[in-house]
Amino acid sequence: MRKCDDCKIILDDDVRHCPKCGKDLSPSAPAPRLAGSDVTSALASANLHRIRAEWDEAIADATDALRLEPRNPDTASLLGSIYEERGMLDEALVWYQMTLELNPDSAPDQERLERVSESISAKRRQRGAGSFHVFEKRTKIWAWALGAVFVVIVAMALISTLFKGKPSEAPYPRPTHPPRAQEQTPPVNQPSETLPQGPKTGSETSTPAAPSARTPGESYILSELSTSQGVGASIDDVIADPRSGTVSVTFTVPFKGFVTREQIIVAAVAVARKTFELNREVKIVTVRCVIQVGGAQGTQIGFVGDIARQTVDALPPSTGSDQLISAFSRPWWNPQIKGTGSRP
Fold first, then answer.
1. Parent domain of 90
2. CA distance 239 to 219
3. Where residue 242 sits, what CATH number does that domain have?
4. Domain boundary residue among 69, 92, 127?
5. CA angle centred on 291, ends 285 and 294, rounded to 5°
6. Farthest-apart Cα atoms in the chain, separation
7. Domain-ending residue, one of 103, 127, 151
8. Could you give the number of structural domains in the chain?
9. Which of 19-23, 108-112, 160-164, 204-208 has the highest mean pLDDT?
């Protein structure tokens, strides 16, 4: 293989003209060869496969280079380009974020990250409620069913109250003669002996409570997350957005004296993973972690981030906290929370 002196792209030995700039690659002048290291060769092969749109081979070669040198920003940037050209924008966003963590001064990668973020946002707006239509339809059916049950209960309570029978009067006139000696008329202000009364029905004691504003689908996810043992967080609220297939989960991380970013990010990934398991229609989970600061400040938001289903599925079981943080798009941290620990 050889490369063009002007464009710096990798080409086969038999190529006579650069497909990008059109430069004449004369065979009389030998082209400069690639570096002999395994990482450079793997990256060159991956880039060549990328140009030919051989995506699986390009990813395989780039993965080999990443295994040899995990903190090489060029490898992460190349993987981002491969996934972007392939149309897998969520994966491309993750690799561009990792590239900027390894090389924060890379202006081209910053531009690529912004371009991919804008493309993802545009697709979410265009998709609207299409991907979440089934979830929304089921939620509406449950809401109509609960509303119908509520109306029936109220109607039965009103009918029971209006048409409750009254005690009928005696068909014959009362006797005018005084009562016998053995008969005693109970005093007016003291009740006679009565039978024990049974418990009152719901229609006699109170009116039915109004239904909650949370949909059955949201209530189901909230209940399952709250009772799950592997989440490691206290679930506060669940809100679904059917326009983009997004579910927002607010949770609190239990702590004693201080909380770290590692604690929050591990709990956030566990919450997102469990939410994806509960509903296959959910595409993106927005996690919100709240913390108790204390004093006049009270409760504050500690972390907010978005994570896609494909990103969670691609995470290996033993992923470090740095890689978990890079898996979130548009992350925001409270300045009071540090990497090693922050007292609330």
1. 34-127
2. 9
3. 3.10.310
4. 127
5. 165
6. 143
7. 127
8. 2
9. 108-112
